[in-house]
Design goal:
With about 190 residues, the protein is an alpha+beta fold. It is about 15% helix and about 30% strand. The protein has helices at about 40-50, 140-155, 180-185, and strands at about 20, 30-35, 55-65, 70-85, 90-105, 135, 140.
């Protein structure tokens, strides 16, 4: 008799843009590499970020081996995106160029008296390893890193150059206040009253 397969009802979605780099291949102290998204990845990433389109996305990286197995990743992500203006709702293109600087650390080895990484008590700010991103299964996902820095560079309220917000002209730009009426009374000559 066949056993029923266990189904994960909450699977983690696959990364929209992924380029996994194996840190075990780092023989030199410094490596340079670059990545670029294909048309399918650009469409998926645009949908994920709520953009009308992404014309291109590329990133250049330098990975430098540090002490204790840590790796410093620096570089730049560049993209041309199409988004809707919050003032006019018209689509417009803009270029993004965002610097990247992150340090990755190997996961700490669980030891006696130290809970396995993942326990809430293990994320104390006094642990220096908590200040770094973690190398997962000996790899760093440079695609996910580029997508993350692109997302951080996006303006949450994009405005097309030259676009002005027009409320329809219904409101008078100078609305009198009660204090303005008091000021007029004060300016009046007392002999007029």
């Amino acid at each position: 008799m066949k056993r029923p397969r266990k189904i994960d009802l909450n699977p983690a979605p696959p990364p929209v843009f992924s380029r996994r780099f194996s840190v075990e291949t780092m023989r030199d102290k410094k490596i340079s590499t670059s990545i670029e998204a294909d048309a399918r990845e650009l469409g998926a990433l645009a949908g994920f970020l709520g953009l009308a389109a992404i014309a291109f996305l590329r990133a250049g990286f330098e990975l430098r081996l540090l002490s204790r197995g840590r790796i410093e990743v620096t570089g730049t992500v560049e993209a041309r995106i199409t988004q809707a203006c919050v003032a006019s709702l018209e689509a417009f293109d803009s270029d993004i160029r965002e610097p990247i600087e992150v340090i990755f650390s190997p996961p700490p080895e669980p030891g006696p008296g130290k809970p396995h990484k993942g326990a809430a008590a293990d994320f104390a700010m006094d642990d220096p390893d908590d200040l770094f991103d973690t190398i997962v299964d000996g790899r760093i996902d440079l695609g996910a890193l580029a997508a993350e820095f692109l997302a951080l560079a996006l303006d949450p309220y994009p405005r097309r150059p030259g676009a002005d917000f027009d409320a329809g002209g219904a409101a008078d730009p100078v609305k009198p206040t009660p204090f303005a009426a008091l000021a007029k009374l004060r300016e009046q000559d007392p002999s007029e009253t």
